[in-house]
Amino acid sequence: MPFKNRNNRNYYALMIEGTLFFTGLAFLDTNSVVPVFIHTFTQSLQLAGLASTMGSASSLLAQLFMGPYIHRIKNLPAFISTIMFLFRPLPLLMVPILMFAVNPYIVVWAFLCIYALLWASDGLIVVPWLDVFGRTIPDNQRGKLLGNQQLFGGIGSLAAGFIIKITLENALLSSAQKYSILFGLSGILLLSSAVAMTFVKDSPRENSHKRINILEYYSTLPGYLNKNKAYRHMLATQLIGSLAGMILPFIILFGQNTFALSPNQVSTLIYIQIIGSLIGGLFWGNISHRLGNKYIILISQIINFTLPSLALISLGLHKFIPPLFFLVPMCVLGGINKGAWMGYTNYTIDITDEENRPVYFVLTSLITFPTTFLPYIAGIIADAWGFIPLFIIGMAAASIAINLALALKTPHRIE
User: Fold this and answer.
1) Given Cys at both, which of 98, 186, 191, 271 links 180, Cβ 3.0 to 4.6 Å?
2) 3-class DSSP string for the chain
3) pLDDT interval class at 310 (50, 70, 90)
4) What are the sequence ranges of the domains in the chain?
5) Is the pTM value of this prediction over 0.85?
């Protein structure tokens, strides 16, 4: 296939795949729907935080397992599509579980297992996906593609948010019926995204048939860390920023528990957060295209500082100003910040060479793995001491991350 035609085909296929994927994930949003679902069934903030931890941890572990074998896979798009078809329909299993399971903790733990498997499958394909993306999409189109994925995925998520809102507000449905509808729709959309991936074609690449020694492979990784100063700086910013961002799954639960919000107000905040993700897709794509990926990282950390600041202000002024005055912008900003991951992804692509790029993505997974436990730790802190310590930690970490982001170098970009 001619180079230009293949790249154009991949651009639109990957855009559709990402759009369907993000729309399907709107029904499984770890910062809104999932915490509210778990809290509804168990009243536990720890388990709400554990969902985010299990998803991130399983994804990173799968990336670490897959990393050494990327260069041995002959057809990366076919491998990615196969994994998608096997695992992306998993949320459909929640429909019979919700309908027939009696114990709410069995329901929640079954969901956590399915959720972990879903994200583990994503971990198996994320590095191959990024490898295909980095080699077949021109560098000045990558930010635009990821931004369009989130923009159109955000539009789909907006429709999903409307369905979520009217479903959760429907007094005629039980909690089990409500979440059966939401998780079932998620499974259908995620399966559709696998279909879109079958249209992606790879560029010619050399496959390695050399026997892989896992210990030897991982023993070489520190060398890559040492020889790329820009990558080290970005990674430090990402680690500190993760500490600042651990409050994101608890924004709506903070409002629900602190200000005794009604079910309608909770469903409205979920919808507003989805609107924020729509805004974020357009916003981050334009920032990447016009200013560069350094500024995505910087602005996302400013948002990480703003969120706990607004929360603390709301605690002091809620007797005089309705709490929704603060919770609405918090949900919008939280939704926007969901898409900030593209800044780190594209910045890594900018500062690494094509041959070693998969190694750096694996290295990122390895080093950031401990941060996946932060949401669970945050849930423990919130259960034991309330939300105020979380907000103070978040503001302090965001302040450090902002200073680190300001010092990031702007990499050369080929137009």
Assistant:
1) 98
2) CCHHHHHHHHHHHHHHHHHHHHHHHHCCCCCCHHHHHHHHHHCCHHHHHHHHHHHHHHHHHHHHHHHHHHHHCCCHHHHHHHHHHHHCCHHHHHHHHHHHCCCHHHHHHHHHHHHHHHHHHHHHHHHHHHHHHHHHCCHHHHHHHHHHHHHHHHHHHHHHHHHHHHHHCCCCCCHHHHHHHHHHHHHHHHHHHHHHHCCCCCCCCCCCCCCCCHHHHHHCHHHHHHCCHHHHHHHHHHHHHHHHHHHHHHHHHHHHHHHCCCHHHHHHHHHHHHHHHHHHHHHHHHHHHHCCHHHHHHHHHHHHHHHHHHHHHHHHHCCCCCCHHHHHHHHHHHHHHHHHHHHHHHHHHHHCCCCCHHHHHHHHHHHHHHHHHHHHHHHHHHHHHCCHHHHHHHHHHHHHHHHHHHCCCCCCCCC
3) very high
4) 3-202+214-406
5) no
Looking at 153-157, 192-196, 300-304, which range is the least confident one? 153-157
* Structure tokens given for 186: 């998620």
In which band, very low, low, confident or very high, does the pLDDT at 414 lie, cut at 50, 70 and 90?
A: very low
